[in-house]
Specification:
233 residues, mainly alpha, 2 domains, 3-stranded mixed sheet, two-stranded antiparallel sheet, 7 helices, extended, binds zinc ion
Length: 233
């Protein structure tokens, strides 16, 4: 049997590359602001690469694809950084990630010890692209043949922008990006714990809970209260 099909009536199904879906997920994990990417870099630096699962490595690969897709400069005043290496789905190899991890730690060590950091000179391209586009903007481009070079360039850019806000938490030692220059602790939790400890030390109390104040049991009532509070936000 022959059936005539009106092609115009057929639903147009757009082919979506599964790698695009995974890259979108990577964006959702990291965030859209330049500082979210600085935080991502700090997180990578503090990963124990030996403990990453195959799934973690796969996620990380897509985060590198997202990094080169990320339109820096759309928000904030960070110049747009264009990494030209391989195809749009090109990712660094595991050896290159290990090298990047080592470099990041070297840079962080220098920052925390207030030592001079030297990055090799890189070929930088500044262009207005594409000039015929009304919304075209200046961006800083970097053409690299190797991911190592591209990552080193991106790290040099971002660390130079955020260096003042990179702090090591005096309580848990985590390296974090502070919201303000004078913020020392990584979280409110660490800040509170440190304040409590200082208070106890000053009052001569032994570490641990002071007498007469038993540990509160987490009751259902308490949990409900928490939910209510969250809703009100
Ligand atoms: Zn902390």
């Amino acid at each position: 049997m022959i059936t005539a099909i009106d092609i115009a009536q057929q639903p147009k199904e757009k082919f979506i590359d599964p790698r695009e879906v995974e890259t979108d997920k990577a964006f959702q994990r990291i965030g859209n602001l330049p500082e979210d990417w600085m935080r991502w870099m700090l997180r990578i630096a503090q990963y124990d690469l030996n403990k990453l699962s195959e799934g973690d490595w796969s996620n990380l690969s897509y985060e590198f694809i997202a990094l080169r897709w990320f339109p820096h400069g759309r928000k904030g005043n960070i110049p747009r950084i264009v990494i030209m290496v391989g195809g749009i789905f090109s990712t660094p190899t595991r050896t290159q990630v290990i090298k990047f991890h080592k470099d990041l730690n070297l840079v962080l060590d220098c920052i925390l010890k207030k030592k001079i950091i030297l990055f090799e000179p890189k070929l930088i391209r500044i262009e207005f692209d594409p000039p015929e586009n009304k919304r075209a903007q200046w961006h800083i481009g970097f053409r690299a043949d190797k991911w190592e070079d591209a990552l080193e360039y991106v790290a040099a850019q971002w660390f130079s922008i955020y260096i003042d806000k990179i702090k090591q938490c005096p309580r848990c030692n985590k390296i974090h990006l502070a919201d303000r220059k004078n913020q020392e602790y990584c979280s409110r939790r660490c800040q509170t714990q440190a304040a409590t400890q200082t208070y106890r030390e000053r009052k001569g109390l032994i570490s641990g809970r002071p007498r007469g104040r038993p540990r509160k049991e987490v009751s259902l009532k308490g949990k409900k209260k928490g939910v209510k509070h969250a809703k009100r936000k």
